[in-house]
């Protein structure tokens, strides 16, 4: 996989920005936002983000066990850059 191709998977940018906002979330919390159309698509996006170390996955020992996702420092940096690009685009439309 290209080092940047995963960014264009459906919902990846939205997931990054959501985790940047809420700090941590479980699979269901992210799925409820409807960034993707299926749980399978969400799992694919999360695995891609985890593979390139933009998010970390933590299994919480509860009954039943829960999985939490949060941004790594690299994920936080990328989220800030995406927000900066978004702001730049929005400001150019207002000129």
Structure in words:
By secondary structure, the protein is an alpha+beta fold. It has one domain (5-93): Winged helix-like DNA-binding domain superfamily/Winged helix DNA-binding domain (Arc Repressor Mutant, subunit A, Orthogonal Bundle). Helices cover 54% and strands 16% of the residues. The chain is built from four helices and three strands; from the N terminus they run αβααββα. Strands 1-3-2 form a three-stranded antiparallel β-sheet. Helix 1 packs across helix 4 (73-93). The protein is elongated and about 55 Å long. The relative contact order is 0.17.
Radius of gyration: 14 Å
Q: What is the overall silhouette?
A: elongated
Any idea how many domains?
1
Helix content: 40-55%
Order of strands across the main sheet: 1-3-2
Order of helices and strands: HEHHEEH
In terms of topology, how is this protein built?
Blueprint: H1 12-22, E1 24-26, H2 27-32, H3 39-51, E2 55-60, E3 66-71, H4 73-93
Antiparallel strand pairs: 1-3, 2-3
Entry keywords:
alpha+beta, elongated, 3-stranded antiparallel sheet, Arc Repressor Mutant, subunit A, about 100 residues
Overview in brief:
With 95 residues, this protein is an alpha+beta fold. 54% of the residues lie in helices and 16% in strands. The protein has a three-stranded antiparallel β-sheet with strand order 1-3-2.
């Amino acid at each position: 996989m290209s080092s940047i191709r995963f960014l264009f998977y459906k919902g990846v940018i939205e997931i990054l920005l959501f985790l940047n906002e809420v700090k941590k979330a479980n699979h269901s919390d992210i799925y409820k936002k409807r960034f993707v159309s299926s749980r399978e698509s969400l799992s694919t996006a999360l695995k891609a983000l985890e593979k390139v170390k933009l998010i970390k996955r933590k299994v919480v020992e509860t009954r039943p066990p829960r999985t939490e996702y949060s941004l790594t420092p690299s994920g936080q940096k990328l989220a800030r850059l995406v927000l900066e690009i978004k702001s730049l685009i929005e400001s150019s439309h207002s000129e």
